[in-house]
Design a protein that fits this description.
Strand order of the largest sheet: 1-7-6-5-4
Distance between the termini: 43 Å
Shape: globular
Oligomer: single chain
Number of strands: 34
């Protein structure tokens, strides 16, 4: 593993000062601080003219890794050529300027699609997770890494394929790491150890359990009926375990075909899930009975219409899902509002494709597949667009990030930071 540092002494001082300051809000992992795609910041996002203020824009070679933002720094995963070899690296940037701070070589940079090369944008799809000055990553080959967030130095790594009889998926893993307290959660081991809780400081196994096969879905840590739990979307369906012990809490069986990629969406005691390739979408209600839990189906929408998500995970506000729906409807697929408890489609707006969105206050920040960045009011009444700008001219399958009044977005070749904070 190789780490390249830029201005190490200056960076160390800068990082220390940044760490002592109070930031309005971080976006430290895939889909934000609570893994729900929602920012708690109070920013009325809109702009005059064609575009918001661009803080920086820079080339980023290939991939669908999103941004994690923490303590004034930004982290993502890209492909780079190192000594003539294609390699996947974790990249750290200054959040205010986009200046590169360091990069660390973590994995091979090809073979993401069953042996295909990384060309055509099919590069890293996992997003870094940042916690307490450390960066956590999961490679396509199911190797978990922990780096020092200051300089990118390796702290520990754990190879699920070699150390835990790992079982990868056809396109190789696209999941990100989930962190809660002192634990890191990953999936991909073999029988009896397919789900793992690791000590985030040492990488040591705290618990291991299950005989489940993985999907591309990132596990979600949440609290339902007072119980802290981590929900894995596996090939058998949803599997929820106690974060501290790995003890099984509940299961919700669900069909699997070819691939599944969205994260579970949790709102109160309802969990939403979806899979493409003819599977469909569903929602279940979690009930607590004594010391046990049950998961009961609320509704099921089979097939690829009208409610299905290919890999774009929706957000939920006031009982309604908002997201990019449709299967393989590249560039033309709709954004929809769907009632969570019933699956009823409230409205549909075409031409967002396989993009992604997040929620900031009452406004959706939506990056369409064709590079259009739109701000939409989150209401079930009708599609109400507030602002729009052309962020990129190439493919965008990456989830936006939002931190300290700034929108961070990526295409397969560039990354951009927009300042939309109130002045």
């Amino acid at each position: 593993m190789k780490t390249v540092r830029v201005g190490a002494m200056v960076l160390g001082v800068s990082f220390f000062l940044q760490s002592t300051l109070s930031h309005a809000a971080d976006w430290p992992m895939y889909r934000g601080p609570n893994q729900d795609g929602i920012s708690s910041e109070k920013v009325a996002i809109q702009w005059d003219g064609d575009s918001p203020k661009v803080l920086w824009k820079k080339p980023m070679n290939t991939g669908f890794s999103s941004f994690a933002v923490s303590d004034g720094n930004v982290f993502t995963q890209v492909v780079r050529e190192i000594k003539g070899n294609s390699r996947e690296v974790c990249l750290a940037l200054d959040a205010a300027t986009g200046k590169e701070l360091w990069f660390t070589d973590i994995a091979r940079g090809e073979g993401y699609s069953g042996g295909d090369t990384a060309g055509g944008g099919d590069g890293p799809r996992s997003t870094p997770t940042v916690s307490d000055g450390k960066v956590y990553l999961l490679t396509p080959d199911l190797v978990a890494h922990c780096l020092n967030a200051n300089l990118g130095r390796p702290i520990w790594k754990r190879d699920l394929m070699k150390e835990h009889h790992g079982r990868n998926i056809g396109w190789n893993s696209a999941a990100s790491v989930a962190v809660d307290g002192d634990l890191v959660f990953v999936a991909g081991g073999g029988p009896g150890e397919s789900l793992l809780g690791l000590n985030k400081n040492t990488g040591a196994v705290v618990w291991k359990t299950g005989d489940e096969k993985i999907t591309h879905s990132t596990p979600v840590v949440t609290t339902i009926h007072g119980q802290r739990q981590v929900i894995f979307f596996m090939q058998s369906g949803l599997v929820s375990v106690d974060t501290k012990t790995g003890s099984l809490l509940w299961k919700f069986p669900y069909s699997y075909s070819v691939s599944t990629a969205i994260s579970p969406v949790v709102s109160g005691d309802i969990v939403y899930l979806s899979a493409g390739y003819g599977v469909g979408s569903s929602a279940c209600r979690i009930k607590k009975q004594g010391d046990g839990f049950t998961a009961t189906k609320l509704w099921f929408s089979p097939g690829n219409e009208p409610v299905v998500n290919h890999w774009s995970t929706p957000v939920c506000k006031d009982g309604y899902l908002y997201g990019m729906f449709g299967f393989k409807k590249f560039k033309k697929g709709p954004m929809k509002c769907v009632e969570l408890a019933t699956g009823k489609v409230m409205w549909s707006q075409p031409n967002f494709g396989q993009g992604n969105l997040i929620l900031v206050g009452s406004r959706l920040v939506a990056l369409a597949e064709d590079g259009n960045l739109a701000i939409i009011k989150a209401t079930p009444d009708a599609y109400q667009e507030i602002a729009r700008t052309k962020a990129f001219n190439d493919k965008c399958w990456t989830t936006p990030a939002f931190a300290d009044g700034k929108i961070y977005v990526r295409s397969i070749s560039q990354g951009t930071c927009y300042d939309v904070s109130e002045k």
